[in-house]
Amino acid sequence: MLATVTFGVVPAHAEGSKTTYISYWSTGGESSRWHDGDNDNTSTTVRFQNCKLASSPDTRASAAVSVWKDVFGPDENKGSKGDICSATKSWGVLAEGDYYFSLDNINGASGPGTFHLDAKPVTMTW
Description:
The structure is a single chain. By secondary structure, the protein is mainly beta. Helices cover 0% and strands 50% of the residues. It has strands at residues 2-6, 17-25, 34-36, 45-48, 52-53, 56-60, 63-70, 76-81, 89-90, 97-106, 117-125. Strands 1, 2, 4, 5, 6, 9 and 11 form a seven-stranded antiparallel beta sheet that branches. A four-stranded antiparallel beta sheet has the order 3-10-7-8, with no helix packed on it. A hairpin with a 5-residue loop joins strand 7 (63-70) and strand 8.
């Protein structure tokens, strides 16, 4: 489940940003949607911080996510990025549309229910 806790400060020239958190997410989980009006020349970025396994809060975790464009029919995968817990990852400047990210794997495992991830904060800019 992804819950919005606060809206972040918009970086200079960014159209939008959002700061939230992830609690007890397994692979396949999806974020809320955001709209990129393509009104700027800013890359879409995602960053997880303080990634931990929900079952073992003292254990640091790694994660990979994909950004998707929400379209009629099958959604368009804009690419997967690993190591999202260690550094901000960029998907470049994306065309106007509605987007979300999905959790691809945790500690390299992608099976349903293998691990559950907690991360706070989770920051997106577009």
